[in-house]
Specification:
- The complex is a heterodimer of chains A (135) and B (178).
- Chain A is α/β, with parallel strands linked by helices.
- Chain A has one domain: Transcription Regulator spoIIAA.
- Chain A has three helices and five strands.
- Chain A has a five-stranded mixed sheet.
- Chain B is an alpha+beta fold and 178 residues long.
- Chain B has one domain: 2-Layer Sandwich (Heat Shock Protein 90), CATH 3.30.565.10.
- Helices cover 33% and strands 23% of the residues of chain B.
- A six-stranded antiparallel sheet of chain B has the order 1-2-3-6-5-4, covered by helices on one side.
- In chain B, helix 4 runs antiparallel to helix 5.
- The longest helix of chain B has 21 residues.
- The radius of gyration of chain B is 17 Å and the shape is globular.
- The chains are: A alpha/beta (135), B alpha+beta (178).
């Protein structure tokens, strides 16, 4: 069966240091509950090191990142870490804008190439240039 | 609208709808390049349309990401805090994209609206009447990435307008930032 466009698909695999949650498609407010359920299930299962591989995710919104933040905070309280792996450009950008790329460990992908601080961009007007793209 | 009343011409736009349009800063009389309804189940289609239009106009990929993030977050706010859906309109005007996101009506929770029909908030606005800035990151994110933002709340709902500059010369579709 074909996956409907605009939906979130998830799967969980065993990684070297803990479970790996893999995400595909697009994660937004309509799938934030689904994402939260998947993450919560792993936390309930006792995972301390959780990797979320977002390489298949072309878009995530603030509601989705909030679900990741809650999981990351819970893990941190238990001495664990949440690793976001291989974000595409748009997802890396949102993590950066929300200031949570430093809360998680973000590995690979487009992360790190757009490390600008955007707190004042709205005053900069039409001359504003985007951070260096992947070109 | 035509009129034979010279007083009306001298006074400029007189009915409430036209005044409201002018206040939120998008060009009247210009057809939008995108005019799309959305609800909780069609936000992905809205994102795809916005991305396609921005790319076709030569907006760099990274800035297109910002535009998609901004309009999605505004639309998601309308879904979540408004009446469950709304409409996005995008105009190309003077080297900029003017993007309007309006919800389908007053918030279901009946939050208080300004009795005079609403208030325009600038980028420093912190007291949105029907889309609370304090709830979540949505509007806060929009303020980070948009060149301009205004939010107009009235008895019929909330309308947010964001402006994104296009690269290069206006009306030059072949202009690309290389």
């Amino acid at each position: 069966m074909l996956t409907p466009v605009g939906t979130l698909r998830t799967s969980v695999a065993a990684g070297e240091s803990g479970p790996v949650v893999m995400l595909w498609g697009e994660a937004d407010i309509s799938s934030a509950g689904q994402l939260s359920d998947v993450l919560t299930a792993q936390l309930s299962g006792g995972a301390q090191q959780l990797m979320v591989d977002v390489s298949g995710l072309s878009f995530a919104d603030s509601a989705s990142v909030r679900a990741l933040v809650l999981a990351g905070k819970a893990l941190r309280e238990w001495g664990g870490t949440l690793v976001i792996a291989r974000p595409q450009r748009a997802v890396a950008r949102l993590l950066e804008l929300m200031g949570v790329d430093e809360l998680f460990v973000v590995q690979g992908g487009a992360a790190g190439q757009a490390r600008i601080k955007d707190s004042g961009t709205r005053e900069s007007g039409e001359g504003r240039r985007p951070p260096g793209g992947p070109s | 609208m035509t009129t034979n009343d010279p007083a009306a011409d001298a006074a400029g736009p007189a009915d409430g709808a036209v005044i409201a349009d002018a206040e939120v800063g998008w060009p009247s009389g210009v057809p939008p390049i995108l005019n799309q309804a959305f609800d909780a189940g069609t936000l992905y289609a809205l994102r795809a349309s916005v991305q396609a239009h921005a790319s076709a106009l030569g907006m760099p990929d990274a800035r297109t990401d910002d535009l998609v993030i901004a309009l999605h977050e505004l639309a998601a706010n309308a879904v979540r805090h408004g009446a469950g859906g709304g409409r996005v309109r995008v105009w190309k005007h003077a080297g900029e994209l003017h993007c309007q996101v309006e919800d389908d009506g007053a918030p279901a929770r009946g939050e208080a609206l300004a009795p005079d029909g609403g208030a325009v908030l600038d980028s420093a606005g912190n007291a949105a009447d029907s889309w609370p800035f304090s709830l979540g990151h949505g509007l806060w994110l929009v303020r980070l990435v948009a060149d301009e933002i205004s939010v107009f709340s009235g008895p019929d709902g909330t309308c947010a307008t964001v402006v994104f500059a296009l690269p290069g010369a206006d009306d030059a579709p072949s202009a690309r930032a290389c």
